[in-house]
Amino acid sequence: RLVTLTFVERCCTLAAVVSRQRISMSTPPSPSYEARLRNPASFIEEVNTQYEGLHRAFEEQFWGTKMALKDGSYTVDALTKAKGEMEAFLASKEKLAQTRGYLARSDLSEAERATLAIFERTFGCYIMESEAALALREKCTAIEGTLEDARNKMRLGAVLDGAFVELSSVGLRSKMRVDGSEATRKACWEGLRSIGEFVTANGFVELVRARNAMARELGYEDFYDYKVTQAEGFGKGALFGMLDTLEQGTRPLMEEARANLAAAKGEAALLAYNSAYMMAGSVTQKLDPYFPFEHAVEQWGRSFAALGISYEGASMRLDLLDRKGKYSNGFCHWPQPAWVKADGSFQPTVTHFTSLADPSAVGSGHTALTTLMHEAGHAAHFANIKMPSPLFSQERAPTSVAYAELQSMFLDSLVGDAAWRFQYARDREGSPLPFALHEEDVRAKHPYEVFSLRAMLAVPYFEKALYELPDGELSAAAIQALADEVETRIQGGPGGRPLLSVPHLLSDEASCYYHGYVLAEMAVHQTRAFFAARDGVIVDNPRVGPTLRDAYWRPGNSEPFLGLVERLTGKPLTGDSWVATLQQPVDELLEEERAAYAAAAKAANGAAAKAAVDLDMRVTLVDGDEVIADTTEEGDFLAACKKFEGHIRQRFPRAAAA
């Protein structure tokens, strides 16, 4: 029953409970308030409708400004205004008081009580009793808007062969992974390092200071403590108790892997701009023909359809190509949340989804397909929430970061599976990726997979230390030095992705967020182990989609992340499955992968490549203001994919002919 709170869920309402204790109830209720108490359904409908409109207005501005659309109505000022109006609504003390008045009644339906409970949790996350805190929040929003606008317009790139070449952060990282010239790789890394110098000189120092001041005004230890408590329901201390166990448990694996890499490739392989190339640069180039960028959308659709995933009548707008001025990180947002209205009708989602692909770059197809599987995993999750309010299906607090990321990371993990690669990693002639090449890839990367875990851990450890810096010590130089220190301490040396180049640090929604990826990856491995034990296979298993839908997706944020994982897998969340994967001998892993590849090849009869794809979703492929293809206009998903493929071939002929 949704109205029955478990112990874990009660923990997850901590922020709301704290807010309840702080908020003064001395103001007498107005007559209109008394009248509304007689009709909870009207109050619920009013809150739902008002929030839906404010949410949509903010998300439309977010998309327009981040995508650098030409419409003059998309501005930083308008974005700041829309965000402020949405957050002012969510921070309404009057609505929280009304909600609690209704919750005190004994004649509510189960749906009404569940909906009012999420109202209480959500309002409790945003209400600030202190006027000083409200002013500081507005200050944070203004600084953040100006900083992100400056970052989007930053002239980023690298000096190559004596000339400056503009490249996005994604382009720099891609080139660093595959370019055979050490000088070029170093130049690209230095380009990424320049982001840190830029943001710390353009408001980030002031933003950190203002965020901390706001959090402390509200009674939290610092901004990180505030953010994690709001999103996860437990504080910074509890979070890092979990992360410390993982950090300490995998440190010996990291040290061993670094020693093995140096022994195999030389000490230079440990340099930040060399590691990725030395581990797999040549393999990445060999894999490239089997991940043609122009086929990525079709292969994502086929894979999800074979898993039994439906988008429940949603609409999705995909902006996949990199271009100047575009936001420097892929994301998936929902200007229209999914929810069940009072009359029982279902409101499907509208999804905005972006990545930063350069089809001419080696590895772009693999990156694009992985990003599609990830962000479309988010979209599938939020499209399948069926609860009686849009507040159950919005991605901000009190929605758990780890809960949201588990869904996308589970689905993008399939791209590395041998069975998936046989079915979907195919060259332009339709030939599957040979197992011998998959084996070469596994042998090159598996011994060093712990590096990815450590790079993931480095971000929350950096942000924790960042927000613990005393105000008097905050400076551009101190922040840059701290980033270098954390990279060395957690990753063993400077990272290939400098910490200050991570875009999550700047945005309010994504700051102090990265721990969610770590907790989610723990749950990914635990969930994969569950499916392997129950079904034997994950790839093209039509039971996977419905299981995820019913166990993880339908409830939205009405149930706690930890409880959902335990209910499906039968075990409390731990990092055991992840660590076991890292410790597995490569020959043992390859024996399993060889069997899975052979089974996929035996089962293949050509039908999958010819089958229609029905995701129950309208898909529009765009490049900024230009519409490339639309499933409604083209007739179906595969027809839109063919038009997109033609567009890419025409615009990037050398890449498509490779």
Question: How does this model look, in words?
Answer:
- With 658 residues, the protein is of the alpha/beta class.
- 61% of the residues lie in helices and 7% in strands.
- The chain contains 30 helices and nine strands.
- It has helices spanning 7-12, 14-22, 31-37, 40-66, 76-90, 93-103, 110-126, 131-152, 169-178, 182-201, 204-217, 223-232, 236-265, 275-287, 296-306, 364-383, 401-412, 418-424, 435-445, 450-468, 476-491, 515-535, 544-553, 561-569, 576-583, 586-603, 607-610, 631-634, 637-651, 653-657, and strands at 157-160, 163-166, 314-321, 331-336, 339-340, 346-347, 350-357, 617-623, 626-630.
- The longest helix has 30 residues, at 236-265.
- It is globular.
Secondary-structure blueprint:
Elements: H1 7-12, H2 14-22, H3 31-37, H4 40-66, H5 76-90, H6 93-103, H7 110-126, H8 131-152, E1 157-160, E2 163-166, H9 169-178, H10 182-201, H11 204-217, H12 223-232, H13 236-265, H14 275-287, H15 296-306, E3 314-321, E4 331-336, E5 339-340, E6 346-347, E7 350-357, H16 364-383, H17 401-412, H18 418-424, H19 435-445, H20 450-468, H21 476-491, H22 515-535, H23 544-553, H24 561-569, H25 576-583, H26 586-603, H27 607-610, E8 617-623, E9 626-630, H28 631-634, H29 637-651, H30 653-657
Parallel strand pairs: 3-7, 3-8
Antiparallel strand pairs: 1-2, 4-7, 5-6, 8-9
Helix pairs in contact: 2-7, 4-5, 5-8, 6-7, 8-11, 9-10, 10-21, 11-12, 13-20, 14-19, 15-16, 16-17, 16-23, 17-22, 18-26, 19-26, 20-21, 22-25
Mean pLDDT across all residues, rounded? 91
Class by alpha and beta content: alpha/beta
C-alpha end-to-end distance: 56 Å
Largest sheet composition: 5 strands, mixed
User: What is the number of beta strands?
Assistant: 9
Low-confidence stretches: 1-31
**Quaternary organisation of the protein chains:** single chain
Give the strand line-up of the largest sheet. Answer: 4-7-3-8-9
Helical content band:
55-70%
Strand content: 5-15%
The whole-angstrom Rg is 24 Å
- Coarse morphology: globular
Task: Note the total helix count.
Answer: 30
